[in-house]
Design a protein that fits this description.
The chain is an alpha/beta fold. The chain folds into three domains: 27-251, 3-Layer(aba) Sandwich (Rossmann fold), CATH 3.40.50; 261-343, Ubiquitin-like (UB roll) (Roll); 348-447, Up-down Bundle (de novo design (two linked rop proteins)). It is 41% helix and 12% strand. Strands 5-4-3-6 form a four-stranded parallel beta sheet, sandwiched between helices. The chain is globular, with a radius of gyration of 22 Å. NDH-1 shuttles electrons from NADH, via FMN and iron-sulfur (Fe-S) centers, to quinones in the respiratory chain. Residues 349-394 form the NADH-ubiquinone oxidoreductase 51kDa subunit iron-sulphur binding domain. One of its GO terms (molecular function) is metal ion binding.
């Protein structure tokens, strides 16, 4: 958590943290990140934890769904779909199980908010899981986490154990509202494709993580072919404060269509990279200022608003409000708010090459456009980076990327094509220079390093 967020957390209203004096930061999920043993149930309770669940147990499932709808909470996994509306898509109860699955398979380059949330404040997620389970009539919830982050997995398991032993999950769940809640933390084997909700469900069922054909959607036939809600970590962790403080409290933040607050992960060439929890509608210029500005002696070249899969922005978009509608109107996507900042020392060809290598490696191979297209894009990008590009390579890249976008089985193809297409659009001369000059000669790699020599 940034120093500014810590300072903002000191401003407490009667129901918890409020705006800073300027209204810039809204520490809620990050409020206790700097507290001693912030991950423990004792610390979480001392800061108002599990008040939301206590209130939820006095409300009916229908009231909880309506409350979340009224708050305007939207999915934090990238798509921004209204959360309460998603919950309401479940069919009427039929006496058989229904499930909640939390997507904690955070792995896109630049995206780094959900894993820190589980590490620093896992009980916000556990409480959110409990409230959501009550709202949808579920008595068995799953958290699908990347197996590589073993320390985070252990912390999540400990939080689930604490919540279970405390009695918070003993009753109030299931279709009849009097069942205990079981939370299973599942460690995946590590595949970016499992961040796609249906591939995640296949993996959770013990099969290879491949996206499913939709319809049917998970709300109708999800985990074990039963009605299932799949939500992101930050989405679910945001629910307790909404239930505790009310829909109007949450809806008072943000913009007209993008309500509330979110974690903005600022990384790259800024003085103080970190997590900045702020209302939607804050601008990148404000976030860079909160981050201490571009590193001394340098200036901004380009940035991405939602991780490597979103179209590239430049300095001219610094004042675009960071909400779903404004960013889309400016030609990009807010995504997971993974704001990567690159200064003038960086080769756009080098950056896009690294991203392309990632997507080619992570393609599941189920569909031809993504399987073949990412392979050939990687070959061409590596040639251009090395200064060995062939005549027509840039045009060929555009053609291949255009034949991947919108033609893949899932969104991974679009994610792979986007940085290539927008990179060429904004830095075509750099790509064309790759036919004669290596990227490391045009932009010496040591100049862009942020590691300090010892």
């Amino acid at each position: 958590m940034s120093a500014e967020t810590s300072q903002a957390a000191e401003s407490q209203g009667p129901q918890g943290p409020s705006y800073t004096e300027s209204g810039t930061l809204t520490p809620v999920l990050t409020d206790i990140w700097d507290a001693q043993r912030s991950w423990s149930m004792e610390t979480y309770r001392a800061h108002g934890g599990y008040r939301g669940l206590a209130r939820a147990k006095t409300m009916s499932p229908e009231e909880l769904v309506t409350l979340v709808k009224d708050s305007g909470l939207r999915g934090r996994g990238g798509a921004g779909f209204p959360t309460g509306l998603k919950w309401s898509f479940l069919p009427p109860p039929d006496g058989l199980p229904r499930y909640l699955v939390v997507n904690a398979d955070e792995s896109e380059p630049g995206t780094c908010k959900d894993i820190p949330t589980i590490l620093a404040n896992p009980h916000s997620l556990i409480e959110g899981v409990a409230i959501t389970s009550r709202a949808i009539g579920c008595d068995h919830a799953f958290v699908y986490l990347r197996g590589e982050v073993s320390h985070v997995y252990r912390r999540l398991l400990a939080a689930v154990r604490e919540a279970t032993e405390s009695g918070e999950l003993d009753t109030g769940f299931g279709l009849d509202g009097d069942q205990p809640l079981r939370i299973t933390a599942h460690a995946g084997a590590g595949a970016y494709i499992c961040g796609e909700e249906t591939a995640l469900l296949d993996s959770l069922e013990g099969r290879r993580g491949h996206p499913r054909l939709k319809p049917p959607f998970p709300a109708v036939a999800g985990l074990y072919a039963r009605p299932t809600v799949v939500n992101n970590v930050e989405t679910i962790a945001s629910v307790p404060a909404i239930v505790d403080r009310g829909a109007q409290w949450y809806a008072a933040m943000g913009t007209e269509k993008s309500k509330g607050h979110g974690i903005f992960s600022v990384s790259g060439h800024v003085a103080h990279p970190g997590q900045y929890e702020a209302p939607f509608g804050i601008t990148m210029r404000e976030l860079i200022e909160l981050s201490g500005g571009i590193r001394p002696g340098h200036e901004l070249k380009f940035w991405v608003p939602g991780g490597s899969s979103t179209p590239i922005f430049g300095p001219e978009e610094l004042d675009v409000p960071l909400d779903y509608e404004s960013v889309a109107g400016a030609g990009s996507m807010l995504g997971t708010r993974a704001l990567q900042v690159f200064d003038e020392t960086v080769s756009a060809v080098r950056v896009v090459t690294r991203w392309t290598e990632f997507y080619q490696h992570e393609s599941c191979g189920k569909c031809t456009p993504c399987r073949e297209g990412t392979y050939w894009m990687r070959q061409i990008m590596l040639r251009l980076e090395a200064g060995r590009g062939l005549p027509g390579d840039v045009e060929k890249l555009e053609d291949i990327a255009s034949n991947i976008a919108g033609r893949s089985f899932c969104a991974l193809g679009d994610a792979a094509a986007t940085p290539v297409l927008t990179g060429i659009q904004r830095f075509r001369t750099e790509f064309e220079a790759g036919c004669t000059t290596p990227a490391w000669e045009l932009f010496p790699y040591a100049a862009s390093s942020i590691a300090k020599a010892r």
